[in-house]
Design brief:
The protein is an alpha/beta fold. The protein has ten helices and 21 strands. Helix 5 crosses helix 6.
Length: 413
């Protein structure tokens, strides 16, 4: 017999404690918890649907932060449409009378004491017609709920599970960093390759100090992955987003689905030098002057940052534009040179580009408005090519990347 326990990813420890307590209290009961039982990939929503179909009841773990997030309402609403009993479990100081609609229509329990845990077992036993075990440890369950806290470490994750590593054909690109740090980038940080999307729905994500997410290559981040990263940032995580020339539509990716949550929108263009012509300046190194942009700790003292394959960004008011196009120019595919095939921007008519020489004010790197990041922070750079693939970049590039890594790894939030 199965019941479904809905929770957000940063409350996975509490969900596990409830699962263990209820399964010990009612032998034969299977409590489905996504952080424990789910197998992600393309079948994620199907597994959720199958678990809800098999369930006899839905429990929703509700805290002041989780009730504002979509998955609790989505999963509890799915249980209600299936005419299953739905029981909100209030914790972390949330009272029953503070539940928002539609959760407030259900009979909730404030799961804060031994007696409340015992009451949950009694109610579920009656609801499911299952006799509880005589040795149920209500005190242990209540203590587990109160005592488990996620502890943020100092590791920085580099996301590789959306084919990001396939961008690189050189040993010095950023997606090779977990395996081999180039000389000049040694520091007090540990980089962890994240090549399994299941990590985004587990407490493992919340142990990270920082996260680097590059533009997927002919792949997309699942909606639940995007939602989990957004939750993680707002709970205190630090996120570095790395775009690439011409943007999502050209590369079948969806980095913008994540960046727009934080008020940053990557554009479908590429920055190049003046006098290049009207072809695409792919792989062409471009010098940027940090003095053309707003002052920021990342660029303090730097005189020249050299990047290639850079797209411009737009950031909402409140953000900091810490690297701009400056004296360079912006190239966009000419309207008559592109076709959209199943949503992908292709260029069947060659590389005909138009030039905007008046775009020096546009940012290519920005910090997202803090009011959109909760307790965390978000930086975005319009390329992952921070170290160069075929050309040797200067010392300022290593300094910039080292500062970014230091910001990611020294998170004490």
């Amino acid at each position: 017999m199965r019941i479904f326990l809905s929770h957000v990813s940063d409350e996975a420890p509490e969900a596990r404690a409830i699962k263990q307590g209820l399964e010990a209290a009612m032998p034969g009961l299977d409590v489905f918890v996504s952080a424990v039982d789910i197998h992600l990939g393309d079948a994620w929503l199907r597994e959720i649907d199958e678990a809800l179909t098999d369930a006899r009841a839905v429990l929703a773990l509700c805290s002041p932060s989780s009730v504002r997030r979509p998955w609790i309402n989505f999963e509890s609403g799915s249980g209600w449409t299936r005419r299953l009993p739905v029981v909100p479990l209030c914790h972390k100081g949330l009272r029953k009378d503070q539940l928002p609609d539609p959760l407030r229509i259900f009979q909730a329990i404030e799961l804060t004491t031994d007696a409340a845990c015992a009451d949950l077992v009694r109610r579920l036993s009656a609801m499911l017609a299952v006799a509880p075990a005589g040795s149920f440890d209500a005190t242990g369950m209540a203590q587990a709920l109160r005592g488990r806290r996620l502890v943020r470490g100092t590791d920085v994750g580099i996301v590789l599970c959306h084919r990001q590593s396939e961008w690189d054909d050189g040993e010095r690109a950023i997606f090779a960093l977990p395996a081999s740090l180039p000389r000049g980038l040694e520091g007090p940080w540990t980089l962890r390759a994240m090549d399994d999307e299941r990590a985004f729905l587990s407490s493992d994500l919340h142990a990270l100090s920082g996260l680097i997410v590059g533009n997927p290559w002919r792949a997309t981040m699942a909606p639940e992955t995007v939602a989990a990263i957004v939750e993680w940032v707002r709970a205190g995580g630090r996120l570095l987003l790395l775009g690439f020339e011409l943007g999502d539509r050209h590369h079948d990716g969806n980095l913008a689905d994540l960046s727009r949550h934080f008020g940053v929108d990557p554009a479908g263009d590429i920055v190049g030098p003046r006098g290049y012509g009207t072809s695409k300046p792919y792989d062409e190194p471009v010098d940027f002057n940090p003095g053309d942009a707003e002052a920021h700790s990342f660029t303090e003292g730097l005189t020249r940052v050299t990047l290639a394959n850079v797209q411009t960004l737009q950031v909402l008011p409140g953000g900091t534009e810490w690297l701009r196009v400056g004296h360079n120019v912006v190239y966009r595919p000419r309207r008559d040179s592109v076709r959209y095939r199943d949503g992908t921007m292709t260029m069947p008519h060659g590389t005909a580009f138009e030039i905007n020489p008046e775009a020096g004010w546009l940012p290519v790197a920005a910090e997202a408005p803090r009011g959109l990041c909760g307790a965390g922070g978000v930086q975005m750079v319009g390329t992952w090519d921070l170290l160069g693939r075929r050309q040797a970049f200067g010392a300022d590039n290593f300094t910039l990347l080292a500062r970014l890594l230091h910001w990611l790894s020294r998170n004490t939030a």
